Amino acid sequence: MKKIKIGAALLSMMFAGVNAQTLKSPDGKFEMNFQLKGGVPFYNLKYEGKTVLEDSKLGLRLFKDTSIKFASEIAKPEDAKNDLNNGFTKTDEKRDSKNETWQPVLGEKKNYINHYNEFAVTLNQTSTDRNIIIKFRLFNDGLGFRYEFPQQKNLNYFVIREEDSEFDFPSDMKAWWMVADYDSQEYQYQETKVSEIPTKWAKAADANASQTLIKNAVQSPLMLKVEGKTPLYINVAEAAVLDYPASHLEVDAVNFKLKTHLTADRQGAKGYMQTSATTPWRTVIVSPKAEVVMDSKMLFNLNEPTKYTDTSYIHPTKYMGVWWEMIIGKSQWAYGQPESNVHLDKTDFTKLTPNGNHGANNIKVKEYIDFAAENGFEALLIEGWNIGWEDWFGRSKEYVFDFQTPYPDFDIKMLNDYAHAKGIKLIMHHETSGSATNYERFADKAFQLMNKYGYDAVKTGYVGDVIPRGEHHYSQWMINHYYRIVEKANEYKVMVNSHESVRPTGESRTYPNYISAEAARGGEYDAFGGNNPDHHTILPFTRWMGGSMDYTPGIFQTKLDYYFPGDKRFVKTTLAKQLALYVTMYMPLQMAADLPENYKKHMDAFQFIKDVAADWDDTKILSAEPGEFVHTARKAKGTDNWFVGGITDEKAMDYTVDFSFLDKGKKYEATIYQDGKDADYIDNPQSYHIYKKTITSKTKLPVHLVRSGGYAISIKPVK
């Protein structure tokens, strides 16, 4: 229990308002108070009079100069005089407000509402005569704040040792969390009390291709719940992570406090700053309804509008891929034998001994193109088309790919001509093997090749340790790299889908060609270590808060012993749940990930994947509970068609779909795809039932979801 803080809390309440500045949300339900206590900045947050955050400290610690030593350097007491976390006096304050409606290029709704009240306080550190601004924005769904550093005589260049923004909660809560890591977000979510995180943390991580764990810290977005008669759902995250490292959350399990922990480089530096500059926004989204938290667009609102003058090339895309068969081990990315020790500028790949199992070959790619075209898809991703895959992983090899030269059995011109003749565009794949420097070296030539052959989308990948060595996937240098590539892609009118990159935090508003990312434990893990049945019900409250994910659903053949007798691996969902994911997960770059041969056996169910939209005019979160279930309805862009999807965790559930979101007085034809009566995600995952029904806005439809099951509904107006 947090007993030791009660006295301090009472004293704080007695003197609250003496030196505090108050900010209220537009609807008046939130109240944020800021004050200096002994020269140290603090803030707190209340919702409808109930304390969400107790007085929480703000500030940053800095290195003494910009020529720092390595991470072994130990902070000395005298170094504290460089910090920006104490000795402040308030010199100015400004207030502002905004109520605007803006349209995302691609989004879950046609219009996003950006409505907030703002308070910006200027603080002067008397001993050093340095100024910082702390800016708060209070929305009707929560709080965002950041630090701003004006250009000034005594603060031009500085290096951040750590940012110490705190989130001090008054009580223990349920948390849905994953271990913090400088290099990976590909972990299973855990569901425990905040107080239990340290005892569960050590067993919450499994191995990854690149891994730098932060003990007793968790990743954001972090989903929390105050349980009881008046539950409260809280999401802690960040927005607009640009020219700054991504952050994690250190856990004080005794005092229920979280503190920002920035991703470091090899020297232990967190951020190299030059004024004028700003940090990302720290965000706290709060509601008594889980659906409101899940529906929040705060992270997007805290990003700047795009400066792109042309966004006409950015479009939703439904695609297939020569990919899943490599993931499950049926074919390979490499053309030559393993351990071929290839050199891109020296090896004659036509003389390599083929391994006989290369996936990206002319015959197979044409088969995929044929199936995709016959079924109305727009694009086909092909991985393993380019030379270099023989020694791409685990070598710390800088010059590993050139992103231009195809393997001998991949005729890039012929396949592009063949695809375009059938109305299919190919999606380029640029795996970097973590060698970001090499990718930047070849970026122009790679995108020029894409332009030459009519590719308008690229999937980038960052598997393995980062080069330049000593950087991490979420350190400042790599954050800047991701957006250098995105801006370069915009020069060539190319959309970007990144994998193993940093998680998005609303930046698609500013960089709308960054249409998707992986940045979490995606569908590929169904063939690796597995994804638990509750995984899909947590991701919309965490990873999806800041942007689209390329989850790669649509797996119909969920048992891998179908390919490899005796193989125990399986996708832990029913087939109907795989359909539902196309609605519960927002994916403007939307993949049908399974093999054509498996879709051909279930063309009646495949019809939903063919019909479902990838971009939306409206989204309604019908009902949701993190870790348990999600039910979502979406209206397709520019039409009167709706799609509904519902999923559950390892527990079966009954649910009644209320269609009151439909236009009154109209009739619709609904096609329902749901779990069969004998379906089970372990014993009988391919059992499903499809039927049609005429519905109106007054219709209420009962559905049954089996364990890790789901349903999907396609709704069209009756003319």
Q: What quaternary form is this?
A: single chain
Rough outline? globular
Largest sheet: 10 strands, antiparallel
Number of helices: 13
Helix content: 10-25%
CA distance, first residue to last residue: 62 Å
Organism: Chryseobacterium caseinilyticum
Subunit structure: Monomer.
Domain Glycosyl-hydrolase 97 catalytic: 323-520
Domain Glycosyl-hydrolase 97 C-terminal oligomerisation: 615-716
Question: Can you walk me through this structure?
Answer:
Strands 6, 7, 8, 9, 12, 14, 16, 17, 21 and 22 form a 10-stranded antiparallel sheet that branches. The protein has a 7-stranded parallel sheet with strand order 28-27-26-25-24-23-29. A 6-stranded antiparallel sheet has the order 30-31-32-37-34-35. The protein contains 13 helices and 37 strands. The longest helix is centred in the middle third of the chain and has 18 residues, at 436-453. The chain is α+β, with helices and mostly antiparallel strands and 719 residues long. The termini are far apart. Helix 8 (436-453) packs parallel to helix 9. Mean pLDDT is 95; it is low at 3-18.
